[in-house]
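Hi everyone, sorry if this is the wrong subforum. Our group has a chain we'd like a structural model of before ordering constructs, and none of us has done structure prediction before. Sequence below.
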Amino acid sequence: MNGNDFCPGCGASTTPLTEICTKCGARVARVSVDRTSKPITAGILAIVAGGIAVTIALIVLAKVWTATSGIVGDILGLVGLWGAIATVQAVLVALMVLAIVAIVGGICALSRKVWWLALAGSICALFSPAGFLGILAIIFVSLGKGEFK
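Answer:
Right subforum, don't worry. Here is the predicted structure as tokens:
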């Protein structure tokens, strides 16, 4: 609280603890919300976990696509392993989607907006190869819930 002795709206006398003027209803002092680094920490952790997941998924997808092109792809088709390759590709794409949600949730945590999306991003960060960062992100987002708009 800024502790004005007079109301900025009507000039009436106030105390340092007055938040709203009793004469005109103007806001005299702003109630400050303690801002901690919890949402920022959670956002960074979720973004890093999502970034790691996207990077690994892209590298593995590129290797799978390279390995299945040409003569190797023909052999896999003859042996009947295309179903397994398609499953691996689907899992990698799902990992990338979860990673993108983790990154978006991390951005929401950094900006202290949309708490539920920050929490969802932290949960999606659990599915990253660096899942322990998701656990920490969930803890920090939960502890910093009061700081979100």
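For your construct planning: The two ends are 20 Å apart (CA to CA). The CA atoms of residues 29 and 103 lie 37 Å apart.
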